[in-house]
Amino acid sequence: MARNKKPASSGDMVRTLLVILVPLVIITVFFSRYLDDYPVQEVDWQSVLAQAREQAPYPVLAPKGLPGSWRPTQVTWVKTGQPHLNDQPSARNLWQIGYLDPSDVYISVNQGDARPEDFISDTTRDGVVDGRSAVGDQSWVRYVSDDERTRSLVWSTPEVTTIVVGDTTYEALEAFAGTLSAT
Fold first, then answer.
1. If we measure between CA atoms, which residue out of 96, 124, 125 comes closest to residue 110?
2. φ, ψ at 82 (rounded to 5°)
3. Measured by CB atoms within 10 angstroms of the end CB, which terminus of the chain is less buried, N or C?
4. Rounded CA gap, 125 and 159, in Å?
5. 27-50 exposure pattern, b = at least 16 Cβ within 10 A, e = fewer
6. Quick check: pTM over 0.70?
7. The 3-state secondary structure of the chain, one letter per residue
8. How many C-beta neighbours within 10 Å does residue 170 have?
């Protein structure tokens, strides 16, 4: 026996849209207003710094005297040949320490002693030279990424390349670089 179907009305369309849209609105409101942000996980970097300074063939730099509002979030010390990214052997003795500044902008110092061209290219996000900065008595080369978001300061000596990088102004990077100390 065939059933007689009445044609769909505009009321049916509205009810169908409500069945779809109401849960979407509830989910959107819940996830955008009621879930807390993940807290920043700070790292204990002192022991890693001590190990790096003991083992590195170059003076390891770290910020000194940063206010407590700067939060250390990343630290790495890898010797040449040890597993690093994707468990591949590190091409250099690599020191990295990164902080969130009071505005939650990430700034890091990175040091490596081999293959400086590759190191600079990788760390500056394939940046191009954008002038020079004076930090203390040192002349740093400025780099900017293609999208002009990431800026870097690079200081090279025969024994080590030091890169300060962040998505911020050169002035902020210069101020951070000014806090770097080998002691």
1. 96
2. -75, 155
3. N
4. 22
5. eeeeeeeeeeeeeeeeeebeebbe
6. yes
7. CCCCCCCCCHHHHHHHHHHHHHHHHHHHHHHHHHCCCCCCCCCCCHHHHHHHHHHCCCCCCEECCCCCCCEEEEEEEECCCCECHHHCECCCCEEEEEEECCCCCEEEEEEECCCHHHHHHHHCCCCEEEEEEEECCEEEEEEECCCCCCEEEEEECCCCEEEEEECCCHHHHHHHHCCEECC
8. 20
Q: Which two tokens stand for residue 10?
A: 């505009």
At position 79, the amino acid (one-letter code) is: K
And the tokens for 151? 């800026």
